[in-house]
Amino acid sequence: MTVLAPLPGDPDAVRLLAERLATTGERLSGLAAVLVRLRDEGAVWDGPAGRAFAARIGPLPGVIDAAARRHLGAVAPLRALADALEDAQVVIAAAQREHDAAEGEYTRLEDHAWTLTAAGVAESDAALLAVRLRQREDVEAMQRAGRRHALAV
User: How far apart (Å, rounded) are the C-alpha atoms in residues 62 and 136?
Assistant: First the structure.
């Protein structure tokens, strides 16, 4: 029952997206190169049809090349995002476990403190002071876990 939320996201899905963008970018780049050769070296035929074909290709290789560069340019940032997401999720999961453990211990100690006070033990009694000290330590542990969680998010 943690109050620290998990970090959503799937690092493997982000990596898969990066790989697919890389593959598509490489294919687009290859296509742009073929179109440049067809345009600049002439189509496989001479004459008006070949010139018309080359004219129609015109700016198309540049447009396709720009798309290829955009695809390929997203690959490294997506891979870095996947690694950072995975690292953050590990830290957050550890913070959640530590918070939950400290919260559970705090609750257990609160029950013990209630039992002591119900039995007539004063707040100034050493036994109850020891319980309260351990509870403060648990609160500090929850706060540390919360800070680690916040930094990772």
Answer: 65
Q: How confident is the model at residue 132 (pLDDT cuts 50, 70, 90)?
A: very high
Half-sphere exposure of 66 (CA within 13 A, CB side): 4
Kindly report, residue by residue over 95-122, the tens digit of the pLDDT.
999 999 999 999 999 999 999 999 999 9
Place of tokens 């100690």: 109
Instruction: Inform me whether the pLDDT recorded for 56 exceeds 70.
Output: yes
CA–CA separation, 12 and 86 (whole Å) = 9
Phi/psi of residue 69, nearest 5 degrees? -65, -35
- Following DSSP, what letter does each residue of the chain receive, concatenated? --SSPP----HHHHHHHHHHHHHHHHHHHHHHHHHHHHHHH--SS-SHHHHHHHHHHTTHHHHHHHHHHHHHHHHHHHHHHHHHHHHHHHHHHHHHHHHHHHHHHHHHHHHHHHHHHHTT--TTSHHHHHHHHHHHHHHHHHHHHHHHHHHH-
Give this prediction's pTM.
Answer: 0.76
Residue 114 CA to its chain's centroid (Å): 43
